[in-house]
Amino acid sequence: EDQVTQSPEALRLQEGESSSLNCSYTVSGLRGLFWYRQDPGKGPEFLFTLYSAGEEKEKERLKATLTKKESFLHITAPKPEDSATYLCAVQAAGTGNQFYFGTGTSLTVIP
Amino acid sequence: DAGVTQSPTHLIKTRGQHVTLRCSPISGHKSVSWYQQVLGQGPQFIFQYYEKEERGRGNFPDRFSARQFPNYSSELNVNALLLGDSALYLCASSRDGGNTEAFFGQGTRLTVV
């Protein structure tokens, strides 16, 4: 069964303290891995798409990387406004175009 | 440019009632997907439509149905509401429904009492 697991469930960082969020997946034939940011009560906001192992994408303080089994979202020198839940989703071959989401990592950045 | 719009934003219904949620995708996008998100969980796939045809269905009961209109907007219908249907219902819009990024609306918060 296809699975997406995110860790840690929650993370508290001091402002400026860099860290990484993990998304591990077990799918047959990865078609794409997607990172989203979600603020409370809002819809997920698209961040990155990664398609193949070794691929990297960057946006401001965020950098996403992909291997054959997992993806990391690196946050460099975070600010309080980076506080949110970060969701990882995958699309797998043979399952149509649906996204399988993990349960997310809740990030809190303390000033 | 307008993003994905959903209506209503909040809704309170009684058990056994019926509800219709609406979604307008980003201009030029032909695919709409629906997801259910229970508090503390990731979104769960309900349906995908592309060019007015159903392209995928998640593990939800037949009480859930959807359709897509010629202008690519979409409706999600839920019959015989249960307390467990209380959730944030998300609509996602994508250009062609393939392995490209999907953009989400702000969601409809449904509370069943």
Write the layout of secondary structure elements.
The complex is a heterodimer of chains A (111) and B (113).
Chain A lengths: L2 E5 L2 E5 L4 E8 L3 E9 L6 E6 L5 E4 L2 E5 L3 E6 L8 E9 L7 E2 L3 E6 L1
Parallel strand pairs in A: 2-11
Antiparallel strand pairs in A: 1-3, 3-8, 4-5, 4-9, 6-7, 7-8, 9-10, 9-11
Chain B lengths: L4 E3 L2 E4 L5 E6 L6 E7 L6 E7 L2 E5 L6 E5 L5 E5 L8 E8 L8 E2 L3 E5 L1
Parallel strand pairs in B: 2-11
Antiparallel strand pairs in B: 1-3, 3-8, 4-5, 4-9, 5-6, 7-8, 9-10, 9-11
Give the beta-strand count of chain B: 11
- What profile does the largest beta sheet of chain A have? 6 strands, mixed
Q: What is the helix content of chain B?
A: under 10%
The interface involving the most residues is between: A-B, 26 and 32 residues
Q: Which oligomeric form is depicted?
A: heterodimer
SSE topology string of chain A = EEEEEEEEEEE
Q: What is the rounded Rg of chain B? A: 13 Å
Strand content of chain B: over 45%
Fold and architecture overview:
In chain A, the strands form two sheets. In chain A, strands 2, 4, 5, 9, 10 and 11 form a six-stranded mixed beta sheet that branches. Chain A has a five-stranded antiparallel beta sheet with strand order 1-3-8-7-6, with no helix packed on it. The model of chain A has no long low-confidence stretch (mean pLDDT 94). Chain A has strands at 3-7, 10-14, 19-26, 30-38, 45-50, 56-59, 62-66, 70-75, 84-92, 100-101, 105-110. With 111 residues, chain A is an all-beta fold. In chain B, a hairpin with a 2-residue loop joins strand 5 (44-50) and strand 6 (53-57). Chain B has strands at 5-7, 10-13, 19-24, 31-37, 44-50, 53-57, 64-68, 74-78, 87-94, 103-104, 108-112. Chain B is mainly beta and 113 residues long. Classes of the chains: A mainly beta (111), B mainly beta (113). At the A-B interface, strand 4, strand 5, strand 9 and strand 10 of A face strand 4, strand 5, strand 9 and strand 10 of B.
